[in-house]
Design brief:
This protein has 324 residues and is of the alpha/beta class. Strands 2-1-3-4 form a four-stranded parallel beta sheet, with helices on both faces. A four-stranded parallel beta sheet has the order 6-5-7-8, sandwiched between helices. α2 crosses α7, α6 packs antiparallel against α7 and α11 packs parallel to α12.
Length: 324
């Protein structure tokens, strides 16, 4: 074998090794890129929970508002919030003027290719509407589907897992929908009231007759309810014209405490609801927990009403017998 031939063969071998190394290195880089969790930021922790359930190991989810003991209306952003948003590939938020700080932060930290999922846009709601959209049964399925599509685009390797986990999530909402249907069959038209419209969409889904809406809207918009609306509210409670009073457990003020005291004194059932998903609960468990509490309260009120009518009938019968 000539010296020139050996040199040429070594050069070909070196070139082949370099080509193989380049291809393998590129594949490894692509795999590492695909394996890196997609950074996701959710404005509220219930959207973050859903993002985690569907994304699994393919995502790293940060929820900005996640403290169930904090009044959401007093939330203030921080530099760390801005940094989290600037790094996110997918952002999920409520909209409908519930989290207006998101628009400002997103505008201040633009990122090419970032997908922004606004729940309000998906269900046709806007500023001025009741913004507590996570209690609207149509919201989470719409958010989940939009988010799954965005995640599969951000990480194509996640498609099979995301499709499977999306189907599982949607199926896991069936017990909630079944509970709503069962309660609607029992309680449709029952009059209730609330200090603010947090649970409004769910109350509508159950078919309850929600009273004092002007009062609730005023409280939601941080304005003083009129004296007339307040008097009507207090009368509904003191005369037991309503069966249940909903109140936001994350907001405590003098007016709320006054209304709670009237309700308890009059025997109106009190059901607490929250704007933030409690620690240790999934979205599904949270919704069912509150529906169960409402079901128990309405059942007790119905039983109490039936007992009262029976007692009144017995007294009327006895009185009639005496007169004879």
């Amino acid at each position: 074998m000539s010296r020139l031939f050996r040199i040429a063969r070594l050069r070909r071998f070196a070139l082949l090794s370099l080509t193989v190394s380049t291809v393998v290195g590129g594949l490894m880089a692509q795999h590492a890129l695909a394996a890196s969790p997609v950074p996701v930021v959710a404005a509220e922790n219930f959207y973050g929970d859903v993002a985690t359930q569907i994304g699994g190991s393919h995502v790293a989810v940060t929820s900005i508002m996640s403290n169930p003991d904090q009044d959401p209306h007093l939330f203030e952003t921080s530099p760390s919030t801005a940094r989290q948003l600037s790094a996110a590939k997918i952002v999920v938020f409520n909209g409908a003027a519930y989290d207006p700080w998101m628009d400002k932060l997103l505008g201040a930290s633009p990122r090419a290719g970032r997908v922004q999922i606004e729940a309000a846009n998906l269900v046709g709601k806007k500023g001025g509407d009741n913004p507590h959209l996570w209690y609207l049964p149509a919201t989470m399925p719409a958010v989940a589907k939009a988010y799954a599509d965005a995640l599969k685009q951000a990480d194509p390797s996640s498609q099979a897992d995301v499709d499977r986990q999306l189907a599982g999530f949607l199926s896991s909402l069936d017990p909630i929908n079944a509970k709503i249907a069962a309660m609607r069959a029992k309680y449709q038209g029952v009059p209730v009231t609330a200090t603010e419209p947090v649970f409004g969409y769910m109350a509508d889904a159950v078919g309850l007759d929600m009273r004092n809406l002007r009062f609730q809207t005023a409280v939601m918009n941080d304005t003083e309810p009129t004296a007339t609306d307040l008097a009507a509210f207090e009368k509904d409670l003191s005369e037991r014209r309503v069966k249940v009073l909903f109140y936001n457990a994350q907001v405590s003020d003098e007016l709320t405490r006054k209304l709670l005291a009237i309700a308890k004194k009059s025997g109106v059932a009190v059901v607490s609801v929250t704007e933030t998903e409690p620690h240790g609960m999934t979205y599904q468990a949270w919704m069912l927990h509150q529906l169960d509490a409402l079901d128990a309260a309405l059942a007790a009120q119905t039983a109490q009403g039936s007992a009262s009518k029976a007692a009144t009938g017995a007294v009327a019968t006895q009185t009639g017998g005496t007169k004879q």
